[in-house]
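QA checklist item 7 of 12: single-chain prediction sanity check.
[x] sequence parsed
[x] length recorded as 406
[x] structure emitted
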Amino acid sequence: MNLYYFIAQRIGKTKKQSFSAIVTRIAIASITIGLAVILGAYGILLGFRQSVQAKVFSFSGHFQVSQRSLNNSYQETPVSLNTDLYKNYRQIAGVSHLQAVAHKAGILKTDNEVLGVVLKGIDNQYDKTKFRENIIAGDFIQFPAQENSLEIIISQKIADKLHLKVKDSVVMFFIQNPPRFRKLMIKGIYQTGMEDFDDKFILGDLRLVQRLNNWADTLAGSYEGFVKDFSRLDTIVVNEVLDHINYDQQIETVTQKHLDIFDWLNLLNQNVSIFLTLILTVASFNMISILLIMIMERVQMIGILKALGASNWQIRQIFIYKGIILIARGMLGGNLLGLGFCALQYYFRLIPLDAHNYYVSYVPIEWDWQIILAMNLLTFFIISTILLLPTMIIARVKPIKAIRFD
């Protein structure tokens, strides 16, 4: 066994009522609580990011390709489905899926209420798996082979305002010349908690929009695309997708279209980073304090070891080992506490939230073992490195004065 590690273990066995023992427990507790808070904060941050992004992606995709136009209304300029991008998107390395959509403004009317909405037309190529998580009642639209479907999916907000439920019928008037209307059947009800979507969007059949607009079945309002790695979205769009769109088409990423949401998520990232810095700073100062107290309580031991021929570095190793032991104990407790909290929230959803303000009805947790490992290594490295500072005082201890020290 390493001699310095052995001595470090022995000097840790102090009386329970001694001052250094009390401070030692405080130091361990500070590391435990600090690491637990860090792991919990990152779990919640990743959960928020994943949940909010999934809701946005289910409505907007990762990028949108449309016909270049100065028109900002929901009356879209059609884009052809016979383009190189739409037909051959599977050959683009960074793109995983492309789907055609179209939008049509209209008014839903019941016996007692009317409400302006936007019908988003989709087809059987639409990525249903991403949207199904939003459905809270009913099911997804069925697309018959011949005729266009008259089924729609509305939001819970729209259902509450118009007093509608699954399998109810509602008439939708479309704003055009001449005006048209269709009697639609509610197939499902969704809820994202995001006002931009829940207040105005309903989902229906793309072929219905095509017929209302007198479009051929080779036309749509735009394409929604998904990339394989969202962290590389801008790079994929600029280097791979742009080369395949026509000169009269334009492309917009989801981060540009929903800038406010992604700015909010980036702000959360900054807050957690500041939080991490503060916690590690406090834990480091606590460790400096406990080592200084231990060194002061053992000045005589240091003097005796120096008198026996021990070098300053050899004695410093004793207290560094002692600090590492305390850090390891604190980190063990921190992992148990932090990951335990995350597991309880992940499986039992103990902490609810107001979906109107936070977009989700409970505190979400996302597991990322790389980040968990990185936070543990960062905590251990920073606090262990800080241990070198208080042990430098050992070089100033004189053996004769230290042995007489009382």
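[x] summary fact logged: The two ends are 31 Å apart (CA to CA).
[ ] second reviewer sign-off
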